[in-house]
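Methods — Computational structure assignment.
A single polypeptide chain was analysed. Its primary sequence is given first, followed by the predicted tertiary structure written as structure tokens.
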Amino acid sequence: MNGAPYGVTLGGIGLRPQGFSLSLNVPNAGEAERLFGELGKGGQVLYPIAKTFWSERFGMVVDRFGIPWMINCETPGG
């Protein structure tokens, strides 16, 4: 993400991840919306990205590989 290499290994083929979500905290609303859109392609939106009382943007999505993500952009000065 953001130009950095990363990888995930599951315990076997066909296993679906359970009991966790990966969380990304990003510096601005535009980046939050971009990442949310990219991760959501071919996936499922659980909580549409939007402004909340605790953040400038927050959303939850499961990507096309079944990995759940939480995208958060804190309010300025928050």
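Note: The longest strand covers residues 55-62.
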